[in-house]
Amino acid sequence: MTRALTLAATLLLAACGSENNSPETETNNGNVEPRELCVNSLCGSKTVLAEMPGAEYLHFTPDGRLFAASDLNIFEVTRNGDQWITTPLASMDCGFAGIEQRGDVLYANGCNQLFAGELSDTPVMEPIHSYSGFQLANGLTADADGKLYAVNGPISTSGLVDAKIARITLNPNNPFEVIEEITWAADGLEFPNGIDYFDGTMYVTDSSVSQVQLGSVKTIPINSDGSAGTVATLSTWPGILDDLTVVDGSYILVADYGSGMIGQIDLNGDILQATLPLTFQNASAVLPGEPPMFSREEILVTEKGLLGDTVSPIGNQLSVFRPN
After folding, report:
1. What does the pLDDT profile of the chain (324 residues) look like in tens digits?
2. The whole model's pTM is what?
3. Which of 137, 241, 281, 317 is least surrounded, with the fewest CB atoms within 10 Å of its CB?
4. Residue 125, C-beta contacts closer than 8 angstroms, at least 6 positions apart
5. Strand-strand pairing, 232-237 and 215-221
């Protein structure tokens, strides 16, 4: 199998994997004390919390509620004693990916549509917008002005996609109404997947068929007029990256789908730590814990498993990586 076909096959398995992160008010203001995390197998270990078919994306609200996307639905994850409960929220079964929050509204990508739901005690996620020309709506984030950014990529079950990032503008008087969708960035992207915003810059995981290092984290600055600046490679990674999270404005956590690892990269692009390969079964998203259900030293990881398989013991679960 050629290098291009090998990459395409791996990307296809990771195609829906991706998210975001902690809310804008926490991760992107630079005022949070950076947490020291164990992101290697010498100091930490994994514990499986709950089954989750095709586990994909993770999001904490400012008050510590945990939401996860999967190949079947969007779930709120809660705890009752030693039991972890996953409650489906979407009005329709669908393959979901990126999750983001604006105010008291939760947004998610699924079935090439944007879903939204009010963060009530029992949220209900409904589709509010169909993306234009998307084959796989994946990562999702928001900038400081509340505009949403959705990734089309890396690859769909029908083949290659039109790799791009769309910018979504919502009605300032109605958070459930999209008033504009534009292609915000496309040049310089090959197989984009996860996306996160910090301090005027988008951080995106990408993959390449032309480079020795398959995976990379790229940056795209937001120009003063709102347009996309030049795409630049911040860091390369010897595997297929899925989701990423900018943590406390200090460093980046990445999920390596192909090698089953998670890693830590500083904002200069240097790799600081990583777990051993195969620590996770196709890691798709990674997010540091938040009280009250988790400590700030714990790391939540979705383990997707194999494409289209939502029943086997390979992946299909939500796990936590804790210091020993």
Report:
1. 333 333 444 444 455 544 554 434 343 444 568 899 999 999 999 999 999 999 999 999 999 999 999 999 999 999 999 999 999 999 888 899 999 999 999 999 999 999 999 999 999 999 999 999 999 999 999 999 999 999 998 877 667 778 999 999 999 999 999 999 999 999 999 999 999 999 999 999 999 876 656 899 999 999 999 999 999 999 999 999 999 999 999 999 999 999 999 999 999 999 999 999 999 999 999 999 999 999 999 999 999 987 777 778 888 999 999 999
2. 0.91
3. 317
4. 74, 89, 90, 91, 106, 108, 110, 115, 116, 117
5. antiparallel
Q: Which two tokens stand for residue 293?
A: 């259900």
Q: Under a CB-based contact definition with an 8 Å cutoff, are residues 57 and 300 in contact?
A: no
